[in-house]
Amino acid sequence: MTESHPKITKAVIPAAGLGTRFLPATKATPKEMLPVVDKPAIQYVVEEAVGAGLNDVLMITGRNKRPLEDHFDRNYELESALARKGDESRLAKVQESSDLATMHYVRQGDPRGLGHAVLCAAPHVGREPFAVLLGDDLIDPRDPLLQRMVEIQEQHGGSVVALMEVAPEQVHLYGCAAVKPTGDSDVVEVTGLVEKPEPADAPSNYAIIGRYVLDPHIFDILRKTEPGRGGEIQLTDALQQLAATYQSAADAAGKIGGPVHGVVFQGRRYDTGDRGDYLRAIVRLACEREDLGPDFKAWLRSYVTEEM
Ligand code: UTP
């Protein structure tokens, strides 16, 4: 466990991936900018970080990612046009994203993997624990997860990953955790991790999803982490080393970096980088909206009964 527990204030959002599963939409547009109902996916992610008290947001971007920066910046032309028209509600919508958080950006020159993207955050983060939210992973705003992870990190120190139980045939799509129970029913201790295992090699059906609270010692490990699966520097490999070092060290001095815990998430989550999940996210969130939901649900009901 780390000696002190500084308050977590920084969120890192890696958004430099190529988004190849969504081509051609992502040829010139970042996948994180694809709209989910009427907001880009990334705005939900930044809102989630702010909702958990993390107002300092560092986004890891790359080529073709300028729209991400523009979205969280002022747009004076649009704002003054809406102000001239007296369209206060749309003006508020435009200003919402630029007033949300203190935004910072760093570019990952080459997308060398999630671990490498997280390492790009080291100069900004310094030696404090910090959160990582994947820019294409959307946690339903009604099922808060990050607050609980921050709470567990403050309680135990070390790092915390988000886990979700998936069907055995899905395990090969995720990082997978070996776990042991703790006193809390929604929290496990992570004893090992494997990136995208074959079903026979999977230590459990607990899959890592895109939220992490990390001890800064992860940067020291990432600097030495060799490319792994897919030739990419994998965050899961660095976390595996963190967990293994903690598990194998007998004395406190060897337990640098602290334990790795997992919060088991049972809420709604969408991988907006996957076309099917993206469509499900839009339908679900549109149905729940007060302004659009009633009409949309009525249409959906008749579509399903008449057309399918
Ligand atoms: P994905 O595995 O979804 O990769 O990355 P991807 O390249 O974005 O998408 P596909 O598979 O080609 O469609 C998981 C997260 O890590 C970020 C991505 O932006 C995404 O949020 N990432 C990945 C980086 O920031 N840099 C990288 O080098 C790789």
TrEMBL record:
It holds the Pfam family NTP_transferase. CDD domains: UGPase_prokaryotic. Keywords: Nucleotidyltransferase, Transferase. Transmembrane segments: none annotated. InterPro entries: GalU_uridylyltTrfase_bac/arc, NTP_transferase_dom, Nucleotide-diphossugar_trans. One of its GO terms (biological process) is UDP-alpha-D-glucose metabolic process. It comes from the Bacteria. The keyword Transferase applies. Residues 10-280 form the Nucleotidyl transferase domain. It catalyses: alpha-D-glucose 1-phosphate + UTP + H(+) = UDP-alpha-D-glucose + diphosphate. One of its GO terms (molecular function) is UTP:glucose-1-phosphate uridylyltransferase activity. Its EC number is 2.7.7.9. Belongs to the UDPGP type 2 family. This is UTP--glucose-1-phosphate uridylyltransferase. The lineage of its organism: Bacteria, Bacillati, Actinomycetota, Actinomycetes, Kitasatosporales.
